[in-house]
Amino acid sequence: MNLLEVRDLTLRFGGVRALDGVSFGVPEGSLVALVGPNGAGKSSVFNCVSGLYRPDGGVVEFGGENVLALPSHALASRGIGRTFQNLALFPRMTVLENVLVGGHTSYRSSVLSCAVRWPGERRREREARARALDLLDEHKLAHLADTPAGGLPFGTLKRVEIARAVMSGSRMLLLDEPAAGLTHGEVDELGGTIQALRDAHGLTVVLVEHHMGLVMSISDKVIVLNLGKVIAAGLPGEVSNDPAVVAAYLGAAA
User: Fold this and answer.
1) Distance of CA 74 to CAs 11, 52, 68, Å?
2) How many other CB atoms are there within 10 angstroms of residue 78's CB atom?
3) What is the signed CA dihedral for 74, 80, 86, 87, rounded to 10 degrees?
């Protein structure tokens, strides 16, 4: 059963058609990659699914619900978490505090309850902190819990951002170029981390990624975009040998 269903998604910027009838499904519990040359429309798909863009046409269903009319914060509460190409962390906050921010959609307090500090609120704070520390331990970041995020290595900050996305209680994670800027060793470690998180938390993962070694080694399904259209979809080995994919990446033979 597909947790995410995208049908006939269309998006225009002036006279430019960024997405032209994009359709695909993401089975629950799977790890699916969206790939394609620069300008293919990958990030535009992410931005539509996460509520940052309003498409000109089409349907995006998550868990059987058409979510296009919902604001981005409502999508987060439905269970859609996301990371970004450019890190969106708070540099003056500690690593632990940054991860705790991810739980704001599932941890809600009224002004009165925060002021009074009722026992139930204190219990939920302890539970949130314990969950955040567990996630840091999973990402081998526990020793940095009280360290300000600013100044930490880029690869470390990528792991902090993924931990924060998981902290939101998401059913599906959208990872936007998680391997960008990482060393080869960090990319290998990232692949194992993503698979382990998917398995440990029962997540569905969709990633936009240019690092094809990572894509081919961890993905259950690969969807290839070019010029705003889906040109191939299937198992990694099938897609990598598809003539349309080869032409899109290398250029058609003269």
Assistant:
1) 21, 12, 11
2) 17
3) 90
HSE of 114, CA atoms in CB hemisphere, 13 A: 5
**DSSP result, 155-202:** HHHHHHHHHHHHHTT-SEEEEESTTTT--HHHHHHHHHHHHHHHHHHT
Q: Are 212 and 43 in contact (CB under 8 A)?
A: no
Q: Is 153 within 8 Å of 182 (Cβ atoms)?
A: no
Render pLDDT for 206-233 as a digit per residue (tens, 0 to 9). 999 989 999 999 999 999 999 999 999 9
pLDDT tens digits for range 108-151? 544 444 444 555 677 888 888 999 999 999 888 999 999 999 98
- Classify domain 2-90+167-253 at the CATH topology level: Rossmann fold (3.40.50)
Per-domain residue ranges of the chain = 2-90+167-253
Amino acid (one-letter) located at 43: S
Q: Which of 166, 143, 152, 153 is nearest to 96 (CA)?
A: 143
Sign of the CA dihedral running 147, 153, 154, 159 = negative
Percent of the chain with pLDDT over 70: 91
Residue 5 host element (H or E): strand 2-13
**pLDDT value, residue 109:** 47
SS3 state at 128: helix
Q: What is the pLDDT of residue 105?
A: 56
